[in-house]
């Protein structure tokens, strides 16, 4: 069975849980407590030398890191309920949209960035919060604009979820959980609501994970 190294707070891992649930692929979660520094221990660095979650262990010869690489692997390996459509132009749009979250929003606003600012640069809390809000809104505003160009449908790019929705939902969840005002992003909120009506998204939510319930 697939093993997913995960933790409830990780936006990147949230994406992977959604995709696994959507595909109906069973997996064993292995919880990595980043507050306790487990992600930086040698035992975990063998799996992901970046010291970041997620890591997906497929078998002893294949460990996949980087959530987007994992998402694409899952979509190719389990083609039922595809997360990318046939149409090559639509695929390009979906990837562009998803990468706003994956490549540009999330990396600027993760724990190691804030720890570095706090511990190595002595950046005070208010300035760190300003940084967080600035880069989050830059990304959300671009995504909102991209969706505004599309016909209004249940999901970001059509009538079923794609990688766009898989990458949007964890980012919006994180924004809401950290007190960002997302009221201006009407299209993003509409798509978020549609996604949350699906069990694949509900079962992937941070608040339903076993490591959340323990802490
Ligand atoms: N580009 C990587 C990013 C992974 C990443 O940033 N993981 C975060 C959680 S979302 C992490 O492990 N953070 C630990 C830290 O910042 O110390 C991916 O998409 O998998």
UniProtKB/TrEMBL annotation:
InterPro entries: Glutathione-S-Trfase_C-like (IPR010987), Glutathione-S-Trfase_C_sf (IPR036282), Glutathione_S-Trfase (IPR040079), Glutathione_S-Trfase_N (IPR004045), GST_Zeta (IPR005955), Thioredoxin-like_sf (IPR036249). It comes from the Bacteria. Residues 1-82 form the GST N-terminal domain. GO terms for cellular component: cytoplasm. One of its GO terms (molecular function) is glutathione transferase activity. Pfam families: GST_N. Keywords: Isomerase. Belongs to the GST superfamily. Zeta family. This is Maleylacetoacetate isomerase. It comes from Abyssibacter profundi.
